[in-house]
């Protein structure tokens, strides 16, 4: 019984040594993982600012889209916009919003989107240019 107990003790010591060396290897690898964790923590901590920035951009697009669309629709009351490029790009709030989003995100050439405004009114054209810049 004594030899079995001694063998069990040496087995337990071997397991402890194995765990010790595994832990030291893990600690060495944590140096690489620590940099990754730092980058992930930085990204996660900046998500709040990202959400507020996106919200502010959406608000600005909405504001300019409402201004341009309302100005066009109140200026042209007789329905002469039907079928024009001005109606296609700025005929509703959704169209205006999408047009302005395309202009700042590279979805369409902003000069193409600004041409109907330039033909309609220089004031709205300048407003569009200010928005894009």
* Radius of gyration from the alpha-carbon trace, in angstroms: 32 Å
Mean pLDDT: 82
Strand content is under 5%
The best one-word shape is rod-shaped
Q: How many separate helices?
A: 6
Low-confidence spans: pLDDT under 50, at least 5 residues?
Answer: none
The profile of the biggest β sheet is: none
Helicity level: over 70%
Number of E-state strands: 0
- End-to-end Cα distance, whole Å, is 87 Å
What is the N-to-C order of secondary-structure elements (H for helix, E for strand)? HHHHHH
Indicate the structural class.
mainly alpha
Structure description:
The chain is an all-alpha fold and 133 residues long. It has helices at 2-45, 47-75, 85-90, 93-105, 110-120, 122-132. Helix 2 runs antiparallel to helix 6. It is rod-shaped, with a radius of gyration of 32 Å. The N and C termini lie far apart (87 Å). The model has no long low-confidence stretch (mean pLDDT 82).
Features:
86% helix, mainly alpha, 133 residues, rod-shaped
Break the fold down into its secondary structure elements and pairings.
Layout: H1 2-45, H2 47-75, H3 85-90, H4 93-105, H5 110-120, H6 122-132
Helix pairs in contact: 2-4, 2-6, 5-6
Describe the structure concisely.
The protein is built from six helices and no strands. The protein has helices at residues 2-45, 47-75, 85-90, 93-105, 110-120, 122-132.
């Amino acid at each position: 019984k004594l030899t079995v107990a001694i063998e069990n003790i040496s087995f337990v010591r071997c397991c402890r040594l194995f765990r010790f060396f595994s832990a030291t290897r893990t600690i060495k690898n944590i140096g690489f993982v620590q940099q990754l964790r730092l980058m992930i923590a930085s990204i996660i901590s900046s998500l709040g600012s990202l959400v507020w920035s996106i919200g502010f951009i959406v608000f600005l697009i909405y504001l300019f889209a409402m201004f341009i669309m309302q100005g066009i629709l109140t200026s042209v009351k007789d329905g002469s916009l039907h079928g024009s490029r001005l109606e296609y790009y700025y005929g509703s709030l959704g169209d205006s919003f999408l047009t302005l989003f395309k202009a700042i995100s590279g979805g369409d050439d902003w000069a193409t989107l600004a041409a109907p405004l330039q033909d309609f009114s220089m004031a709205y054209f300048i407003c569009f240019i200010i928005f894009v810049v």
